[in-house]
């Protein structure tokens, strides 16, 4: 995940570091050391450091997942709707982008998954496109209608925001009229986390203008680790150190650093393991209180009461 790439930085690349920590802060670890221990599996010492940091970041996420499970249930798909019910009459062409507006319940982790989009227009064997407008981002999905003016796109688009628009330029087409299905025009028990409207180019409408969409309310749980990222610095740093030293011990490179066995590698490995254990313990102790404040939709407490005592 891009949000965790710079939690720990590399001074030799002049990288920024969210945590203020750098791999070179580790005792005995620097670019020169990496260059001496790197073997045929890596292009360079720098390649080794970057690869081990990336692996360590994933490993810390895995360890945290195990720590989260006893206290919280992290939901995935929590709601779904099918928007659009095709009628039999075609609408006139107009110089507007019309379609569907979809909004998810306000949540730090909840996002919209647009799975499929169906299109029905009067024009047959016709090339056109649907646009998904997601905040400041617009993504185009081309399609070609068949002999009946029908097309279906498997989109699998996960939104960045909690509100998206699915629209087509209607200047050159005549879309089939399509109404909203019952329950899509307002919040209800069956669509508690999703809301949908037709969109006429400037405001909501009762028609979806030739479009039908299958939409899920999905928790983007990768964002959970982005929110935790600032607290993961020391854990990622020492886990990276562990992985680098393990590579040092296993290296088939022959030079004074790898041949001379003065116990340095074993000492560093034990030191980094000890520090990682401490860092992970502190992080895990902070998780329940932190998660309880994040998102009541996607992160649900497994216990009626969680008590953290202080000595």
Report what the structure shows.
Helices cover 29% and strands 31% of the residues. It has 311 residues and is α+β, with helices and mostly antiparallel strands. It folds into two domains: 2-73 and 223-301, no CATH class; 77-220, Jelly Rolls (Sandwich). The chain is elongated.
Helix content: 25-40%
Poorly predicted parts: 182-190, 304-311
Overall average pLDDT: 85
Q: How many beta strands in the DSSP annotation?
A: 16
Radius of gyration over all CA atoms, rounded: 26 Å
Q: Shape, please?
A: elongated
Write the topology of this structure.
Layout: E1 8-9, E2 21-22, H1 31-37, H2 45-68, E3 72-74, E4 77-83, E5 85-90, E6 97-104, E7 110-120, E8 127-134, E9 137-144, E10 150-158, E11 163-169, E12 176-179, E13 194-199, E14 204-205, E15 211-219, H3 222-228, H4 233-250, H5 256-259, H6 264-292, E16 299-301
Parallel strand pairs: 1-2
Antiparallel strand pairs: 3-16, 4-15, 5-12, 6-11, 6-13, 7-10, 7-15, 8-9, 8-11, 13-14
Helix pairs in contact: 1-2, 2-4, 2-6, 4-6
Give the gist of this structure.
By secondary structure, the chain is of the alpha+beta class. The chain has helices spanning 31-37, 45-68, 222-228, 233-250, 256-259, 264-292, and strands spanning 8-9, 21-22, 72-74, 77-83, 85-90, 97-104, 110-120, 127-134, 137-144, 150-158, 163-169, 176-179, 194-199, 204-205, 211-219, 299-301. It has 2 domains: 2-73 and 223-301, no CATH class; 77-220, Jelly Rolls (Sandwich).
């Amino acid at each position: 995940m891009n949000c965790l790439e710079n939690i720990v930085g590399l001074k030799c690349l002049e990288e920024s570091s969210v945590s203020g920590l750098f791999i070179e802060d580790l005792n005995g670890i620097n670019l020169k050391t990496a260059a001496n221990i790197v073997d045929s599996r890596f292009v360079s010492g720098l390649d080794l450091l970057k690869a081990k940091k990336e692996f360590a970041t994933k490993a810390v996420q895995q360890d945290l997942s195990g720590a989260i499970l006893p206290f919280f249930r992290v939901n995935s798909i929590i709601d779904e709707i099918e928007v659009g019910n095709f009628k039999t009459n075609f609408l006139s062409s107009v110089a507007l982008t019309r379609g569907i507006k979809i909004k998810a319940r306000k949540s730090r982790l909840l996002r919209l998954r647009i799975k499929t989009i169906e299109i029905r227009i009067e024009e047959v064997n016709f090339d056109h496109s649907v646009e998904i407008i997601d905040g400041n981002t617009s993504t185009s999905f081309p399609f070609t209608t068949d002999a009946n003016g029908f097309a279906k796109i498997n989109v699998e688009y996960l939104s960045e925001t909690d509100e998206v628009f699915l629209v087509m330029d209607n200047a050159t087409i005549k879309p089939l009229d399509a109404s909203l299905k019952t329950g899509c025009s307002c919040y209800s028990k069956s669509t508690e986390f999703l809301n949908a409207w037709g969109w006429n180019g400037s405001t909501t409408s009762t028609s979806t203008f030739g479009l039908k969409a299958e939409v899920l309310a999905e928790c983007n749980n990768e964002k959970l680790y982005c929110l935790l990222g600032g607290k993961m610095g020391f854990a990622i740093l020492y886990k990276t150190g562990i992985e680098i030293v393990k590579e040092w011990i296993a290296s088939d490179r022959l030079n004074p650093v790898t041949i001379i066995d003065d116990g340095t590698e074993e000492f560093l490995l034990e030191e980094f393991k000890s520090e990682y254990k401490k860092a992970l313990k502190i992080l895990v102790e902070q998780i329940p209180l932190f998660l309880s404040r994040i998102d009541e939709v996607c992160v649900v407490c497994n216990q009626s009461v969680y008590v953290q005592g202080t000595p």
